[in-house]
Design brief:
Rossmann fold; 14 helices; about 350 residues; single chain; alpha/beta; 2 domains; 6-stranded parallel β-sheet
Amino acid sequence: MSEIVFAIPGDLSLPTGGYGYGRRLLAEWREMGVAAQHLQLPGGFPNPSETDLAETGRAILSQSYDSVLLIDGLAYGAFPESIAAGLAGRVVALVHHPLGLETGLSPVQAAEFVRREAAALRYAAAVIASSETTKRLLVADFAVPAERITVAEPGVDPAARAVGSGDGETVKLLAVGSLVPRKGYDVLVAALEGLADRPWRLTIVGADDRAPATTAALKAQIAAAGLSGRTRLAGALGQSELDMAYAKADLFVMPSLFEGYGMVLTEALARGLPILCTTGGAAAETAPDDAALKVPPGDVAALRAGLARLLDDRDERQRRADAAWQAAGALPRWRRTATIVAEVCAKVIP
């Protein structure tokens, strides 16, 4: 193997978990001396135009034949079978979560994504899944043999323990993730609307331009609920500002409907924050039960009850915070993640 060619669609600097995973692998490989390069694919994936597909084909075919193609699932899962077949034996597919499980798709769209991704994965020499949950999904619903799948969970860096807001009365809630339907922020706002009598403030950190209709609807929902003065949509923040947001939070909330892993959960654990999250996808397993109170995804009443319980019980918040800080020491590190992926790629001989 001469090098790893890591093909990722769109702008690698975008503040999402998937892009963060890609950035970190490339950075770790540079430090490790692993030969690797980033290949930027068109940003139209997972709904590529014919022009996008033609450009993708040219970009991939221009790579040395003895390179291993590590292709992000946002693109590979949307490849037509003809393209995937032409790359058989050269590809390691990286799957954060199957494209057909994205919230907001029609049944027809979801079924087509599943059909296309299952077809493409048949031609991958190996598959990297970001969680055991995703691996199980790929085996059960996409007919990928378990022996071809390796789990490489996202890493997390050590961090200072959160100090909290310092406000003895108002509980500062923090949620992190782009404003897209799958993140379930409408469910969170609906739950908090019924808790207006409690002292809380909510900050949502995440890109607000990926799904403009979702962002507009969320802003309207917050205003209609009379929560504008207590809810801040902070947009995407730089790392230092994000670190400060974690440090000053009292309770981390993740209302996602589905997560392929839930990187923000481990970021919260790394800082010793108590967590309220859903059981959507891998989120049920990413955070330990003693650190996180978990409720079903999409259930407003259950989320409201969980919020009320943790808002009202400072001692429980502290117990879960202590459990989170205890768990922080055992979290996976990025060097291990990068090593696992590089080892899988090294076994693929074009």
